[in-house]
Amino acid sequence: EDKVVQSPLSLVVHEGDTVTLNCSYEVTNFRSLLWYKQEKKAPTFLFMLTSSGIEKKSGRLSSILDKKELFSILNITATQTGDSAVYLCAVGLGKTSGSRLTFGEGTQLTVNP
Amino acid sequence: EPEVTQTPSHQVTQMGQEVILRCVPISNHLYFYWYRQILGQKVEFLVSFYNNEISEKSEIFDDQFSVERPDGSNFTLKIRSTKLEDSAMYFCASRGSYRHEQYFGPGTRLTVT
Question: Cβ of A25 under 8 Å from any chain B Cβ?
Answer without folding.
Answer: no
